[in-house]
Amino acid sequence: MGEIAKAREPFQFFTRLHLSELTGLKAGTLEELLEQIRTVSGSCIYHHTHRFLQQHQYLSPEPPNDFAFWVAETLGERELAERLASIDTVQFSSIRALREKIISTIEDYMKEYPLSKMRFASEGRHFYFIKSISFVLPTPYVAHDLREFLDILNKVTFDSIYFHIFESRLRLEKGDNDFSYWINNSIGDPILAQKISKLDPYTRTMDDLKRTIISIVEKRMAQNG
Known about the structure:
Layout: E1 6-27, H1 30-39, H2 42-55, H3 66-73, H4 78-85, H5 95-112, E2 127-145, H6 146-153, H7 158-170, H8 178-187, H9 190-197, H10 206-223
Antiparallel strand pairs: 1-2
């Protein structure tokens, strides 16, 4: 077996603690929903598009986002719900870009169906905006090469995987997940980096995502001898 190449820079694994906080903001119509989406913090947009992934780590993340669910179940605007649900979150590298897509989707729908403005949520069924608060903490795990990286992947929690795959790319606007960035720039293996980068993490459970990344790294190491 060939010698494992050392990384130019070691990979520090982080984890995160998550809290959800009520903002006091709510919407009862599409117009109110749209206005709030324009102005709420990015942490609100993140919460309502990633809540299911954060809370149900072993289940298939089918509900796409809270906005789609609310306009369908409360306002009865199922076509708009389908349009919101079809937004491919993985294509966006920032909360700002994701917010703009949600806004334009609702705006286009309201222009196409002006009567949608007349629908009101019944009492107690308003959309309540919640923001996601994360506390990022270093773990004791540091990888100096792919073998150590693989060993640590088997040990770290889903919260660590979640941070490096989702939060680093979207909330911190890094453009790519931390694993792919490190493998490409510090390990010097763009093929392996691209394989991980091309995964759609939004269609997988956290358990499946972790297992898939481990499998990809194992196969690449076997290829390299």
